[in-house]
C-alpha cells in the first residue's frame, strides 16, 4: 500500500487543535466550541472542528474542517451542537480508531478536545493510550511514512463534560445540566398551576438512567411531594411511605401533589418503579383517590438555548481546555475540566471515568450508600435538604429536646432577589422539622421598628407552613423587604424588640444592606444583651457584591433575565444588521452582572465601575467597531452589544455612549441605548438560585443551632456567632463577620475587596476580539453623598 496523499504534513509551525462534540447533545456545547475556537486562535493555534462526533474522526475528509474566528459568531445562544454529534460504532473497534489516528495525522492535528459524556471520554482516553501503537501500526502497514508520523508521537486529549444528566464524578456540574433543570422546573411550574386548580396529582418523569441529579434538584427546586432517584432506591415499603407523605400534605390543605421520578428509579430489590405504578397508587389508594396524570417530559429537557450558567461554564471550560492543551507534556495524564462550587479545575480524566462507572456498579450491586458517597458532596447535601423540606413535621424523631429548641427570627433586608422566598421556605421547614419556632419579621428593620405594636402579633409572626410551602418557586419577598439598617431604625428600639420577642437566633437574608445590618448588630452586642444571640447572613442580591461570598442568591436569576433581554435586543438588529446596542445594567458599584452577562452574550465590551470609562477607551472601542463592521460581510445579522454598569462612570451614561458611537460612525452603522431596569430582578427564580437557596439556608439554621451556650460571654467571645455564609472557591464556608468587615470589605464602594470574577473580564475581551484598548487612569472610588443629591448615584 502506498503512503496516502496529500503530501506529508510535517510539524506545522502552528499547533493544530481539534474540537469535537460526542454522545448526547447538551445546551452549552456551542459556547464551549466558540471558546475553544477563539481562545485557540488567540493563542496562535489553528483550530479544527470534527463534525459528527467520532464518526467524523473515523471518516475524515470533509468532516474535519478548519474554523475561522468569525464562523462561531452568534453560537453562544444556539442550543444543541452545531458541529453535530453521533454514536459511532466503528470507534469501539481498534480498526475504527486506527482510521481516526490516520486522519488526525493527515490533518496535522495533535490535540483533541472532546465535549461529551462519560462514554465519549472513555473512548477518548482509550484512543490516547493506544496512540503510539496506532501510529506505529500505520507506519508498519505503510499507510503513513515514519517521516509523516514523526511529529505526532503523543496525542493530547482534554475532556469537557457535556451532559444534561450531571452524571460525571469529580465535577459539581456538567455543561448542560442546569439548562435541562431549568426546562424541567419551568414545566413543573406550569403543571403546578393546573394541578392546584383541579386539585390533581401529577407524576412527572424526567431523564436520568443512572443519575438522579435532575430529579433530585427538580424536587428541591419545585418543592415536590415525593421523588424517586436511582442512587437512593426506595425500601420495599415505598408505597406506604409515599402515600403517607402525600396524605399528610393533603390533610394540611395542599391542593396539588407533584411526584418526580427519574427514568432509572428502582426499589431496593431492583424492581423498576414506573410512573404508571405511582399513578395507580395515588388514584386507587383508599383515602387518597387522587385524580392523577402522568407527564413524561422527554426531549424538551435537552432543548433550547443554554441558560446563563451553562454559557459561562461552557465558555470558561473551553478556555481552560485550550490552556490545558498548551500546558500538556508527554507525561501529563489526560485531564478533564471540572467545576467545584465556583472554581474551574483540571482533574485526571481516567479517574473520573472510573469513579463514574463505579456509581453504576454500586447501584447494580445494590450498594446504595456507596453510590451516594461517590456522588459529590452537593448531591448528598441536596438529598438531605430535600428530605428536610418535604417531610416537615411528619418525623418527630428528629425534633431536638425541648431545651435545645430555639425561637429563630427570619428577616429580609435590601432589595428583592430570586431565591429569597425559597431560602425562607427551606429555613422554616428545617426549623419545624427540628422543633424550633421560626418567626417572620415583616418588612425588614423598618417594619420591625414601626409596626411592632400595630397588630396583636405586631410585625413578628410565626410562619404558617401551608402558606410558606408555596414559596419554592416564588420571586420577590413574601414577608416584605426593606433597605433600612438597624442603626437607621434605632438600635435601642431594635434591641428592645429582640428582648420582647425572645429571639434565640437571627437569620438574615439580603444584600449589602443586610451585611451592613449584621455588622451593626454585631458591634452593638457589647451594649445590648438581647443581641447576644447567634446571627447569620445568607447573601441575596442581584449585584453579587456581598463580601464573604463569591455567589449571592438572586444573581443567577438576574443573569438569566439580562441574558434573555440581550439575546432579544441582539436579534432585533437582524433587519438593519449594522447596529450596536449600549445596554445599561444594574449591579451597584460591582461590575459582576455586567461582566458575566457580557460573557454569556458575547459583548464587544463591558464597562465596569472597577475599571471606569475614559475617552481614550471609548475612542479605541469605536475604532474597533468601525473595523468590525467594515469587515463584516454578513455572516451573522445580529447586532453588537456593549454592556455598561449603571455606575461605571458619572458622566458616560449608556445614552451618551450610544450617541457618541452614532456620531462617530458616520452612518456606517447605527447605535441605540437600552435599559432593562428592574426586569433584572427577575420573575421566577432560576433553579440554581432556588436549589442553592435551599441548601445554604438549611446550613445557616444548622449553624445557629450549634450555639447551645447562648450566654452573653459565650456569644461575645465566639467569632462564629456572627457569620456570613458563602461560596469561596471550591468550598461553602461560614466566615466570621468581624474578619470579613475588617479585611475583605471595600466599604466606600460597597463590594468585596477582592472580586474573583475580575479576571473573567479579560476572557470576555479576548473572546469578542476586543483589542488592547487604553484603560482609564483610575476608576471611581466611592460615590459621595453630594453625588446622590445631584442625582448621580
Ligand atoms: P456519552 O458520551 O454521552 O456517554 P456514548 O456512551 O454513546 O455517549 O458514547 C459516545 C461515543 O463515544 C460512542 O458512540 C463511541 O463512538 C464512543 N465510545 C463510547 N465508549 C467507548 C469505549 N469504551 N471505547 C471506544 N469508544 C467509545
Automatic annotation (TrEMBL):
GO molecular function: 6-phosphofructokinase activity; AMP binding; ATP binding; fructose-6-phosphate binding; identical protein binding; metal ion binding; monosaccharide binding
Residue numbers binding substrate: 163-165, 200, 207-209, 263, 293, 299-302
Segments of this protein annotated with the region C-terminal regulatory PFK domain 2: 407-793
Active site location: 165 (proton acceptor)
Positions of region (N-terminal catalytic PFK domain 1): 1-391
One GO process term, biological-process aspect: regulation of intracellular pH
Necessary cofactors: Mg(2+)
Keywords: Allosteric enzyme, ATP-binding, Cytoplasm, Glycolysis, Kinase, Magnesium, Metal-binding, Nucleotide-binding, Transferase
Region named Disordered: 768-793
Protein name, as recorded: ATP-dependent 6-phosphofructokinase
